Each structure stands twice: as structure tokens, then as C-alpha cells.
Amino acid sequence: MGYNCIVLVKQVPDTKRITGQAMNEDGTVNRAALPAIFNPEDLNALEMALEIKEKYGGKVTVITMGLPTAAEVLRQSLYRGADGVILLTDRRCAASDTLATSYILSCAVAKLNPDIVLCGRQAIDGDTAQVGPQTAEKLGFPQITYVEQLLSLTGKTLTAKRNLGNGWQEVKTSLPALLTVIDTANEPRVPSARRLMKYKGAKCRLEVEAAAKTDPSIDVESTCKGLEKRGLLIRQWDLDTVGADFGLVRARWVAD
Amino acid sequence: MIDVNKQGEVWVFAEHHEGTLEETSIELLSKGRQLADQLKVPLAAALAGNGVEELCVRLGQYGADKVYLAEHPLLKRYQASSYAKAMCGLIVKHKPQIVLYGATPVGRDLAPRIASAMKAGLTADCTDLQIGRHEIKSTGQTFENLLLQIRPAFGGNIIATIINYDRWPQMATVREGVMPMPEPVGTRKAKVIREATDLTPSDLLVEILSEHRQQKKVNLKSSRIIVAGGAGVGSRENFKLVWDLANCLGGAAGATRAAVDLGFIDRDHQVGQTGTTVRPSLYIAIGLSGAIQHQAGMAASQKIIAINNDPDAPIFNIAHYKIVGDLNEVAPKMIKAIREKA
Fold first, then answer.
1. In angstroms, rounded to a whole number, what is the distance separating the alpha carbons of residues A176 and A106?
2. In this structure, are B127 and B177 located in the same domain?
3. Is residue B209 domain-resident?
4. Which residues in chain B have Cβ-Cβ distances shorter than 8 Å to A126?
5. Which of A59, B63, B84, B263 is the most exposed place for a label (fewest CB within 10 A)?
6. Residues with Cβ < 8 Å from B20, sequence gap 6 or more?
7. String of b and e for A188-225 (b: at least 16 CB within 10 Å)?
8. Given B157, B167, B207, which is nearest A171 (Cβ)?
């Protein structure tokens, strides 16, 4: 039968490499001056999903929400074995807090009718660990946070071991369910050379449009058609595609 | 979401395991007490579980004016879905303005689920909380008596202050070990308010098969900033300066063996030969002479700032920045300067 797995990933600034130049004078962070990377624990979540697919069959779809440049983490996912990828991008999503983000993601996930949703425990830019549980709540799914090991998967029943730092717990739940995965769960695979050659040209429409701005010889329509034919056009969704209500996603917080 | 309610109480989620209150919840009661007094509203603990009524006595001794007690057989063991439902029921009914949770594995699992269901804001892993005002510069709108939620962000590279002025309750999880433990007052009693919770087995979305818990320890090793106090701090009460400075920097509180032996702070915080060895980015030594046994545990810190009234204190031999002066004058000035900048 196999399992329909969705992995939620995020492109983040590499906070371990922050230098003086990355700080603005007013004490805020200049994101543009930082290298953007695949959030580390999201790679553990992707690895767990790929292992489920290899053992039980099914498919792995990776979703990220962000700017068109976030398509890079989707290519990275394709190199590692994802079957499908979706870029959730919309100007109206800018400055979303965790509540808005989880709402938009839950709308996207619901469209795909998953068995298992996986994400990293937390992202290294905000370290909040909120989007996983909040997405689960909005979907009405059980949440299993801090997953270190998938113990068994039989029919619609999943058991997993949670590592809580100050102890551990083994829990059982019915699918569909959402898991947040920690860094000790596995050793994420490196990109496969064969898949890298195959997918390195994958692009989303907004990337093609951006390229066409600097190179007038690029025709957006025919380029996108060509990419689609070769299975290299990255699916691009916006708030309307996923049926999210814009009124609910306005950022509500002020941080300074 | 509940309406903005300036008369709302300050709440602390009372986490417990096997009949014992989690230390972080007790720490939060001391901070909660401060916030509630500033806002002139009661401090309440929200206690969910089964057969946990006796914990109300301790919650009262540690500073809660009231305990909202939600007991149900299905709340016997913690899990996110059932506890979130019980807590949301209490929040909707009593409309607290602030709800605090420990940033423990339970708090970080539960609080986002509640925030999502309530469509309320939530700040993760705060190291300091204050009451203050905020002005939206573009509109000139001002808000008084908001909860300022202060936390390290971007991997600890900046300190952010986060507010939530219109989606209440204002909620935050607070890091373990960053707030001092209050002293229990034996005669203090909390008023217990029992609340019925309507749960069915379908509210339990997971089944706990087995569980193992280890003794909790303060995590000094992973702290980038440590503020440590010695015997010179003088009293458990005065150790608040060490805590406050650590909190406003997003760091952890440490201590010498002498300070621990005098009962100023718990042994988990001890740095040195017989305590924890640390190598943070910044180590601020307050009122400690720097005995060789203490230096053994912290000399590898990248930057050391020492504050001592004795210019010949050995700690000055390894400090990068030396402040000769009374810690009771210097530390409050540092705290004030940092808080104003944040």
C-alpha cells in the first residue's frame, strides 16, 4: 500500500556563521548578508520520510513556504530522493508569524491527503518549535514531537520513540499524524550524483521570470513548458491555490 | 483568541510528573508574582491532571493566589491534545491576560497547540519577562502594561523583545533555570477553584506505551553566556542581581562552591572543579575571588568580565575586563543599560 508522506522544510539563514557584517546598526539582522541553508533538522525529517518510502513504499512530497529563492531547498530535496516538491510563495505571506505560517501550511497539506506529515523539530533562525504542533492542531492530527526513532508502521498505526532530553517515551498513534524529528534521529543522506544531474535545472516559474528580466532572450512561457515536459518545473502554489484566507494571515506581531 | 482584558489574571501552567511539580513551574511562580503585582491582578496556577489536588498546597506556598484545578481520569498522563483542550476551556472561561509555560519538552509541545486553537500569540524560550509599553511608530498608537517577552534570537546572536497587543492571552514559554526559585511560605494558601473538564476518549490522540525520566540538570554547558556569583554576593536574596543580569543577556546563572554551600543557589549551578566545566563566549564573574578550583571550571571562557571590590582578587589575573567596585552598584547599572538597549 505505501504511505503518502509530506515533509515541511524551511530555508534559513545560517545562524552559526553570523559575523559583524550581518548585523544592521539598529541591532536587527541583515538576512541578505547571510548564507541560506536547508534547515538542519528538516533534513532529518526528509531522511525519515525517504526511509519510510524505501521500506514500505509510497511517495514523498516536500513543501516549503518562502521566497522564490527557497526553491533551492526543493532542488536539494529532489537530489536526495523526493518524488515531488511544491513551493508555497505569495507576497502576502511576507512576515508571517508561526500562527499564520502553520495556517497556510495546513491548507496546503490538507489538499494532499497525507498519511504522515514530517518536519524538523525547530528551525535555527527562530528556534520556536511551534509550526509543527500548530499545523497538527489546525489539521486535527495527533502530534508526536521530538521523534528520535520510528519503531513500527503497520496499517494505520505508527509507534515512535521520543527523546525528551530528560528522558524518553514510546507512543502509539493512528494515521494521519504529524511528527517533528530531532537531529539524533538519523544521518541525512547526501545528494545522489545521478539525481543531481537530473534535477539541477529544475526551476519554479518565478525563477524563470526573474531570469528573463536580466536576459531578454528567455521566453517565460516556452521555457516553463519545456521544463514541465522534462519534469523539471517546480510546482508553485499561492494563497489562492491552497484556499487560505488572506485576512487570517496578516502578521500580528511587532518585534524590535 | 480572547478579548484584550486588562483586568485579566497572570497564569502559570503547573506542570507535574508523578505527583511532583516541575521546578520550572515553581520558578515561573516567582516571575509571575512580580508581573501580577505590577499589574495589580491575582496570580493563578492552572493545574490539570488526575488526583493532583494536594499540589495546590505547594502552589499556594510558592506564591499563587488561586489554583484553577481541572481534574479528569483522562488527564492522568500528559498528552498534547487532551491537556490543550482542558487548558483552552479554562482560558476561555476565565480570560487571563498572561499565560506562562516552562520551555520544557511538555511546555514546548503543549503551548503551541493551545496558541493555535486559541489563535493567540506565543513567544518561545523567553529568558526574561517584563511589563512595559509599546508605541507603533507609524500610527502613534500606544499600548500600556504589555508583557515584554525577551528572548535570544538568530542562534543567540541578538536579543529580541516581542509583544502581542491584540491577540490575547499573551503567552510565552520560559527557559528552564533562568528564573530564581522562590522560597516557600508555609502559611500562604491559594484559593482552589475546581473546574469540570469535558473529555472523551477520542480526545486522547496518542497512547503512551512506556516512559523513562532522568533527573533534570541545569544546562550550563550549552549556555553561550554565564553570569556567576560567589560568596561576595552576600545572600540568596541578593543573588537576584546575578539572575537578572543573566536573564537580560539571555544567559544562565552560575555560582562558586562557596555560594552554593551558603545556600544562595542550588548545586546544579556550580561551576568549577567539583561542579560543571564551562567554556561560554562570555563569563561574567560577580563577587567571586576566583579560587583556583573555580578557575579550573571557567578559565577557558572566551571573554571574562570580573566585578570585585578587591583589586587584588585572583579572578582579575584571568579577566579580560576588570571592574573594581561594589557589585551592588555595578550590576544594577549593567542591567539597566542592557535593558534600555533591548
1. 13
2. yes
3. no
4. 124, 153
5. B263
6. none
7. beebeeeeeeebeebbbbbbbebeeeeeeeeeeeebbe
8. B207
Which of B155, B160, B211 is nearest residue A169 as measured by Cβ atoms?
B211
- pLDDT for A253: 39
Distance of alpha carbon A63 from alpha carbon A73, whole angstroms: 10
- Restricting to B residues 125-154, those with a Cβ less than 8 Å away from any Cβ of A are 125, 134, 136, 153-154
Structural domain includes residue B214: no
- CA B302/CA B279 separation, integer angstroms: 7
The CATH number that applies at residue B327 is: 3.40.50.1220
The predicted-structure confidence for B234-290, as pLDDT tens digits, reads as follows: 998 899 999 999 988 888 999 999 999 898 998 889 998 878 888 899 999 999 999
Residues A223, A211: Cα–Cα separation, whole Å: 11
Residues within 8 A of A (CB atoms), B 177-206 only: 205-206
Please name the residues between 269 and 308 in chain B that touch chain A, using a CB distance below 8 Å: none
**Grid cell at residue A68:** 522564490
Angle, vertex CA B100, rays to CA B63 and CA A179, nearest 5: 140
- Whether residue B130 is contained in a domain is answered as yes
Whole-angstrom Cα distance, residue A12 to residue A103?
A: 20
Which of A15, A216, A196 has its CA nearest to residue A122? A15
What is the dihedral angle through the alpha carbons of B156, A135, A142, A173, rounded to the nearest 10 degrees?
A: -80
The span from the CA of B342 to the CA of B337, in Å, is: 9
Residues B144 and B73 in one domain: yes
CATH topology of domain A3-255: Rossmann fold (3.40.50)
Distance CA A46, CA A61 (A): 9
pLDDT band with cut points at 50, 70 and 90 for residue B183: confident
Which one-letter DSSP state was computed for residue B76?
Answer: S
Residues B195 and B135 in one domain: yes
> Around Cβ B322, how many Cβ atoms within 10 Å?
16
- Tell me the three cell numbers of residue B86: 482542558
**Torsion of the alpha carbons at B259, B262, B267 and B270, rounded to the nearest 10:** 20
Give me Rg for the CA atoms of chain B.
21
Same domain, B301 and B247: yes
Q: What angle do CA B179, B23, B251 make, to 5 degrees?
A: 30
The mean pLDDT of chain B is: 92
Q: Do residues B19 and B70 both lie within one domain? A: yes
**One domain, residues B235 and B147:** no
Domain enclosing residue B304, as ranges = 220-341
Residue B1 is assigned to a structural domain of this protein: no
* Counts of helices then strands in chain A (DSSP H, E): 9, 13
How many Å is the maximal CA-CA distance in chain B? 68
